[in-house]
Write a structure and sequence with these properties.
The complex is a heterodimer of chains A (about 280) and B (about 240). Chain A is an alpha+beta fold. Chain A contains ten helices and four strands; from the N terminus they run ααβαβααβαβαααα. In chain B, the strands form two sheets. Chain B has a six-stranded mixed β-sheet with strand order 6-7-8-3-9-10, sandwiched between helices. Chain B has a four-stranded antiparallel β-sheet with strand order 2-1-4-5, with helices on one face. In chain B, α3 packs parallel to α5. The chains are: A alpha+beta (about 280), B alpha/beta (about 240).
């Protein structure tokens, strides 16, 4: 009871200092929020490009249908493969006519359909790296009726490199932003605790137990962290809304990311307060 | 009640603040701890209050030994030993009553009893009428009375006072000293550090302990039985007073 009342009273006794601390925490976490928003949207974009990675197995003319279906079944059973679609010669021609209208006449006047049937293999998410793509392509080549296998080797390589660089950059920058946020939150909380160091000393002087002294500060730290987190969330959402409305379409971060941000802000508020109070508890 | 046994406190690079100091303060005793600035008065009080630890030797206060009382347990000692400072150390945003009540709250007193007890303590120090005043609205003497009331919150057996009259005029000083003697008359041991020899002379009933450069150079109880070293001018005057 005393703990909660004192924590709330601390905000009422020094609203400017408490507000400034929460604002500092909020701005520090806002940077992390913006970074999360950018990272999440880049990840979505990369994933949508990756979904287009496919292995096309061209089949010789005259191959029996049951042979093709058997190959389709076997390839579908591979753990890396998400699905296999059979494109018959006729479907290939239809697609060519639709996708390449400028050659419409050429395709119409043909006496014989020159386009081969094919099997189009989609790989599972997370299994679209160059090694897996090459391995599945090699596996598909074992069938005697396979004319050719194509998977855009160079393109897959480049995409994968981009993904790795992107992932590494995001991790390093994310860690750096989080560290900066942590340092700013630590400083904000230290200022708030420093302003009340006399109170801590008096509590020790009259015989308050350390746990009793610490508790209201920890609750205050949690409230500061939570308020800062909410402010950061509001600012990030405001930025998202402005970009979405006036610049380009983008996705809002998942709810669990936002929840994790709020939780981190709160927990870090508690942690930083604990460290700051501990310093003064040790001094006397 | 308070026992200092061969107490030495050495600070790195600054030498010895206290050097092999031993004395006892008995229950119900009133003692002045005198000496020049830097003689070790505050260090002694801090060691008694276990805000600091000796380099060598031991303090025993109301059953708590510096050798055996951990940081975590110091609060138990603090509830038996009140402490008053020269600069009062009141919380500026709280009223006189709230400053006293604060000491009761943070030491876990029952919430229903806090306000009446804080009020009684203020009455005891003669400040009942100023309960609602902020420290900035009180005179130095009144602020020191609030600090004393706060120090009494947990019914201590000992009161340590570090230059409590240092910031007060003569009249306020007289009032605070009368208050200390009243508390002492009720059985509380008082150990008061002061460099004000005039003040010491005015209270001949009190025991006088004098520190010089960290050493105990005079103890009025031993002087009278011829056990102590040569008293300096201040001590001689006190002994005469």
């Amino acid at each position: 009871m005393y703990t909660i009342r004192e924590a709330i009273l601390a905000f009422r006794r020094a609203p400017l200092l408490a507000g400034l601390s929460a604002a500092m925490v909020g701005l520090a976490l806002f940077v992390v929020g913006l970074f999360s928003l950018a990272t999440y949207n880049l990840r979505l974009a990369l994933e949508s490009v990756e979904e287009r990675i496919e292995i096309v197995v061209y089949i010789r003319d005259g191959t029996r249908n049951d042979e093709i279906l058997l190959a389709r079944r076997e390839l579908s059973a591979l753990p890396e493969v998400l699905g296999v679609e059979l494109i018959t010669k006729e479907e290939a021609l239809d697609i060519a006519r639709r996708d390449l209208p400028e050659f419409g006449e050429l395709f119409t006047d043909l006496a014989v359909n020159p386009l081969p049937a094919s099997l189009e293999l989609q790989l599972r998410p997370g299994r679209r790296d160059p090694e897996t793509v090459a391995r599945v392509a090699t596996r598909a080549q074992v069938y005697p009726f396979v004319e050719d296998v194509q998977f855009g080797h160079e393109w897959v390589d480049k995409l994968f490199t981009l993904r790795r660089v992107g992932g590494l950059t995001a991790s390093v920058l994310g860690a750096a932003f989080a560290l900066v946020a942590a340092l700013i939150i630590g400083a904000a909380v230290r200022i708030a605790v420093f302003a009340r160091k006399e109170e801590i000393r008096i509590m020790q002087l009259v015989g308050a137990r350390n746990g009793f002294i610490r508790r209201p500060f920890l609750v205050e730290g949690a409230i500061t962290g939570l308020l800062g987190g909410l402010l950061a969330l509001a600012l990030t959402y405001g930025t998202f809304w402005v970009v979405y409305r006036y610049l380009f379409s983008l996705a809002w971060i998942p709810a669990d990311w936002a929840g994790l941000g709020l939780l981190s802000g709160t927990l870090f508020g508690v942690f930083a307060t604990g460290v700051a109070v501990r310093k003064y508890l040790r001094e006397v | 009640m308070i026992k200092l046994i061969h107490l030495t406190r050495e600070f790195q690079g600054k030498g010895k603040a206290l050097d092999d100091v031993s004395f006892h303060v008995e229950k119900g005793e009133f003692a002045f701890l005198t000496g020049h600035s830097g003689s070790g008065k505050t260090t002694t009080l801090r060691l008694i209050h276990m805000a600091d630890r000796p380099t060598k030797g031991e303090t025993r206060v109301s059953g708590f030994s510096s050798d055996r009382t951990s940081r975590r347990e110091v609060w138990k000692l603090r509830r038996r030993v009140g402490y008053v400072f020269q600069d009062f150390r009141l919380l500026p945003r709280r009223t006189a009553l709230e400053n006293v009540a604060f000491a009761l709250e943070v030491t876990g007193a029952r919430s229903a009893g806090i306000k009446p007890r804080a009020q009684r303590l203020l009455t005891q120090v003669g400040l009942a009428a100023k309960a609602g005043s902020l420290p900035s609205e009180l005179s130095g003497g009144e602020q020191q009375r609030v600090a004393v009331a706060r120090a009494l919150a947990n019914d201590p057996l000992v009161l340590l006072a570090d230059e409590p009259t240092g910031n007060l005029d003569d009249r306020a000083t007289r009032g605070i000293m009368e208050l200390f003697w009243e508390l002492n008359a009720r059985g509380m041991a008082v150990l008061m550090a002061t460099h004000d020899l005039e003040l010491v002379r005015k209270h001949p009933r009190a025991r006088v302990l004098e520190l010089d450069q960290g050493k105990l150079v005079y103890d009025s109880t031993k002087a009278s039985t011829g056990e102590s070293g040569t008293p300096d001018e201040a001590s001689s005057s006190t002994a005469e007073g």
